[in-house]
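Worked example 2:
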Amino acid sequence: MAARTVGPNDTPEAQLRLLIERSDPKDHKLIRAVRSAVRKRLPTANELLYDYKKFFVIGYSPTENGIDSILALSAREDGLRLYLMNGPKLPDPKKLLLGSAKQTRYVLVESAKQLEHPDVKALIDAAIEQANVPLSSKGRGTLVTKTSGAKAPARKKKRAK
């Protein structure tokens, strides 16, 4: 039987479950545990779910806009990554951050306990401190399905008359 695909009528939680099931079975428990740890750390943040077909991302944002995300989990074939916004500006004396993107850096995550390590906690704290939009001190964030990161077909240009 073929694996079920994510459908537009699935709840966001159902969509996330399907995306986790689509990932490598050895990563299922890790993804769930790390998500739980991040939810505990950022309870008021919205989780923004993006399906990029070969991998998926859960952004943690004070709004429903991905650009406002403070951090993100990216479940890829080569492992789970914790991305931190403003990564190039974050204090990283232990050189834990990887990547060379203009806005983010990441840490490869091998266990949820890794997020409790003092050096990783300091990076997360710094990312929260440098966020463009502060997190609310009250309430609970929700899981929101966002559009896929796949590029939309190019629009035809209108001809001048």
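The longest strand covers residues 79-85. The chain has one domain: 12-145.
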